[in-house]
Amino acid sequence: MPDAILIRPSDHAQRIPFDWGELTWFASGPLGNADDLTVGRCILRPGRANPRHYHPNCSEVLLVLSGRIRHTDADGASREMGPEDTVTIPANIWHQAENIGSEDAVLLIAFSSADRQTVGED
Q: 86, 122 in Cβ contact below 8 A?
């Protein structure tokens, strides 16, 4: 990546649909616009959860932009989260988010690696 400010239009983002919602990647190594982080958005549909997973090569910060979720950690402890709540998840920690509201939950997600890896349950 060049040593300059790089602006990418929204059509450069990588959108990946799932039955539980959608991931959209805005900045990462594979997209060619970040050397040391990954930034994306997660949308969880009402009553749905992403699969339990962990990231072996990076930590994650999740910020709830809208909606309400229940975030569950490796020990099964869960916390309800709403707009502007954040959770910081170290590498190698199993976790999962579930939308407990009646509307889409929109989450900003950022990772400490430009090539985020995920290990998860199907």
A: no
111 occurs within a structural domain = yes
Tally of domains in the chain? 1
Residue 94 lies in a domain: yes
Domain that includes residue 87, residue range: 23-117
| 13 in a structural domain | no
- The structure tokens listed for 74 are 């490796």
pLDDT tens-digit readout, 13-40: 999 999 999 999 999 999 999 999 999 9
Is the distance from CB of 29 to CB of 35 less than 8 angstroms?
yes
Q: What is the pLDDT of residues 80-97, one digit of tens each?
A: 999 999 999 999 999 999
